[in-house]
Design goal:
Rhodanese-like_dom_sf, 12 strands, 11 helices, thiosulfate-cyanide sulfurtransferase activity, five-stranded parallel β-sheet, Oxidized Rhodanese, domain 1, transferase, repeat, 30% helix, Rhodanese-like_dom, globular, alpha/beta
């Protein structure tokens, strides 16, 4: 099953006999509530997916900002979206597929044939295609999610990753170096992590760079195809995008779901600052 789908392929799928379900996953750090944008314009018959309430769950701060949903809760949400077993599911957003990748990462291992619309709603609109407005409520589905979820790394896995394989920090360089503050108690990175920002895999038009470019970026940072790779970001969203980019290049990675928002809240965890993986130790 392909991981990505472009506008032309989506239109062909929509004209076919197999049902296609569209998921609008609008979310970003500076605008976490995406429903107003969805109501203003979305792909026809797309259902709005609330990332913070359906692709995450409430949790204690020490678990990170966006803990993963329980399987049963995710299944109930998927049925609300109208998903049935055997459907083609296409997730999209308006921000280079960063949020849509979270849906892909959670659902794909559980048996859902989900792809991400490369370029998102902007690519759809750029081709002059129609959009829907208002809220679309799907007929409830009956999908059954598998018991095997995504490849999740826990905090101890992230601590060991630089010594047993490769740990990739996909945040912007200023956050990796610790020169920019944010929502977390301290700034910096996990010691031993290599910085390979999510933006590296995004072309100027918001689409994914091709597999060769992804492999080249890994090679430049000394990451070999067979390495055991763990990815983290700020709160577990951008890291899913990088996991998708790597998947298109044939590289399987685990995601440290708690990410920096969990690591930075544990006073026993070391924090490195600066441009190198080892960095300079920064205490609390």
């Amino acid at each position: 099953m392909p991981h990505l789908i472009d506008v032309a392929e989506l239109r062909a799928q929509l004209a076919g006999a197999r049902p296609v379900r569209l998921l609008d996953v609008r979310w970003r750090l500076d605008l976490p509530e995406g429903r107003p944008a969805y109501l203003a314009a979305h792909l026809p018959n797309a259902v709005y997916v609330d990332l913070e309430r359906e692709l995450a769950r409430p949790g204690h701060p020490e678990q990170g900002r966006l803990p993963l949903p329980q399987r049963d809760d995710l299944e109930r949400a998927a049925r609300r979206w109208g998903l049935d077993d055997g459907d083609v599911v296409v997730a999209y957003d308006d921000n280079a597929s960063v949020a849509a990748a979270r849906a892909w990462w959670l659902l794909r291992p559980r048996g859902v044939d989900i792809r991400v619309l490369d370029g998102g709603i902007r690519a759809w609109i750029a081709q002059g295609l129609p959009v829907g407005r208002g809220d679309h409520v799907a007929v409830p589905g009956t999908v059954r999610l598998g018991d095997v979820g995504p490849r999740v790394a826990e905090i101890e896995d992230a601590a060991r990753a630089p010594y047993q394989g490769t740990l990739i920090d996909v945040r912007a360089p200023e956050h990796y170096r610790g020169s920019a503050g944010g929502a977390d108690p301290v700034s910096g990175h996990i010691p031993g992590a290599i910085n390979l920002p999510t933006a590296t895999h995004i072309a100027e038009d918001g689409r994914f760079r091709d597999a060769e470019r992804v492999r080249a970026a890994l090679h430049e940072r000394g990451i070999a195809p067979g390495d055991d790779v763990v990815i983290y970001c700020g709160a577990g969203v951008a890291s899913a995008h990088s996991a998708l980019a790597l998947a298109t290049a044939g590289v399987t990675a685990s995601v440290y779901a708690g990410s920096w928002s969990q690591w930075s809240r544990d006073p026993e965890r070391p924090v490195a600052v600066g441009p190198t993986p080892e960095g300079v130790f920064q205490g609390w």
